[in-house]
Amino acid sequence: MGSLLRSRLFWGSLAGLALAAAFPLVGGPYTIGVLIPAFYFAVFAMSWDLLFGFAGEVNFGPTFLIGLGAYGAGIVDARYGLGVPLSVAFGTALAVAGGVALALPALRLSGPYFGLVTLVAVLLLQQMVTVFADVSGGEIGLSLPDVLSIDDATNYYFALGFMALSGAALFALSRSPAGLILQACGQDPVEAQALGFNVAKHKLAAFVVSAFFSGLAGALLVFYYGTASPGTFIDIAVGVQIIIAAVLGGRRTIVGAVLGAVFLVVAGEVLRPLGQMSTFAVSAVALAVILLAPAGFLGTLLFRRGAA
Amino acid sequence: MLGLQILIDGFAVSALYGLGAVGFTLIFGVSGVLNLSHGAIMVTAATVAWALAERAGAYGGALGGLASAFLLSFVTYFAVVRPIQRSRSIPSEETEIFVLTGTLLWGIMIQVAIAYLATTSPHTVRPLISGVTVIGGVRTPTNEILTAALCWAAIGALTLLIERTRAGKALLAASVNPRGLTLLGFELERVHLLVWAIYGVLVGVAGVLLGAFLGASSDNVGTLTASAFSIVVLGGLGSVPGSLLAAYCIGYLETLTAYLVSPSLRNIPALILLVAVVWARPQGFLGRR
Fold this sequence. Notes:
Subcellular location (chain A): Cell membrane
Number of domains of chain B: 1
CATH class of chain B: Mainly Alpha
CATH topology of chain A: ABC transporter involved in vitamin B12 uptake, BtuC
Transmembrane segments (chain A): 88-107, 114-133, 153-173, 204-225, 231-248, 255-274, 280-303
Structural class of chain A: mainly alpha
Main location (chain A): membrane
Keywords (chain A): Cell membrane, Membrane, Transmembrane, Transmembrane helix
Oligomer: heterodimer
Largest sheet of chain B: 2 strands, antiparallel
Largest sheet of chain A: 2 strands, antiparallel
Strand order of the largest sheet of chain B: 1-2
Helix content of chain A: over 70%
Number of strands of chain A: 2
GO cellular component, one term (chain A): plasma membrane
Largest interface: A-B, 40 and 40 residues
Strand content of chain A: under 5%
Number of strands of chain B: 2
Radius of gyration of chain A: 19 Å
């Protein structure tokens, strides 16, 4: 039954990917431009779900990791002209290092305390960007000499491919023995420890993996935009969107986060005529999903079908 | 001179922080809810007070702001918090995170609604008292003194309520051992209603005073929630005296930085202090483990 469920999810994801791959044939450049950031956003949400759904830690600061990746890559490219691949590697490494530096003290804490420390990390990073404005571009933003590609189709397939690979890696990890141990650590740390698993080590590893994918996606997104600004990469509001996307899509499913992210971005775009009230509508929908179907889109779908 | 100025300004700001955080910590202590729509409710009170003051005068506006926060806190409880707590499809160990996410979304909805109805520009509520008082050579707006006095009056009233009345003692008992309280024949539901009512009043007073003292805009919602959250964690989750102590630490630290270093850096030392304390002593100043 488990494998049936898994295979249905697998075929569903494959069909979704095929649909997404065929989309540029019908969609105009504008809709493609909307979907590209949505794919990177989906990677953010999936990495967050690994921490929340499996390690059981509420990370209020996904944008700390993303911001480190984005600004790390952006700054070395703008200042030293390292070029795209090296800069992305640097940004990702910085995000992983920052993730370890944050997780080592923070994982000693639990629940709201962990959440608060991660929140503070975001606020500090945002302040740093403003204080060191001559290096980081401050509130105005940092513009980069290089971009990934100027061709929409290339950018689209690159983002889609990146999302698919990251999703596959994260999903495989979550279903691997290590992922199961991680889930046990998240749900009942005392019992997991009693069974002889090193809870701290597994959670730290989860944090590192999450930081790796967040940082990498952040660094790539910076080269898609060609600019970095606190409002797009670090602001708490961005982190909130990521959390909403993951919970909306279905926590503990990894793949669901993609649905949530694409839904959020597309809904924001469709509701744009409402102006400010579009955020209101999107938040209201998300709240309704949490109240009525807390398992999220994918969770509800899988659970209902699986039970029947 | 500058020292006295810092002392006075810091005192008023800290009193305001303290009042804002006390409601937040009370809710957590009694019902285990971290209400992330806190800042949004505060700004609602300030905005309603500002809008009503045009027609109803400063006092009418302040009362209106208070009433709006009171109502909104009940709406938060009945429409968001209670359905999540009672939901059967949310496992009990995940209730906390769902309450966090739910109140966060609710806060965003309120914030956007305020921005839509009253724009994002900061509104300053008309002060209850105008004029300037000179304290030891420092010109201080009388409203600033009134703000500090009212904050302490509200905190004093809360202390009396908790320590001297039967209902207040039930609140205290609920924060220590809710199960024991139900065994003694108290309806926990009513205790929760009471704590949300008290919360509504506290946050309303804090919001109106904040609006009159510093001005409030819907853009401040996140910062307000974050600062209440940090103060409460610094002081120890659920501890009212701890929150007051923490509010004074953070308030003075920010005022000192703003006066002596640069106003744009005012948040940084407080954030670093917070990380250091949480790391070395996760239960905060006066928290129970």
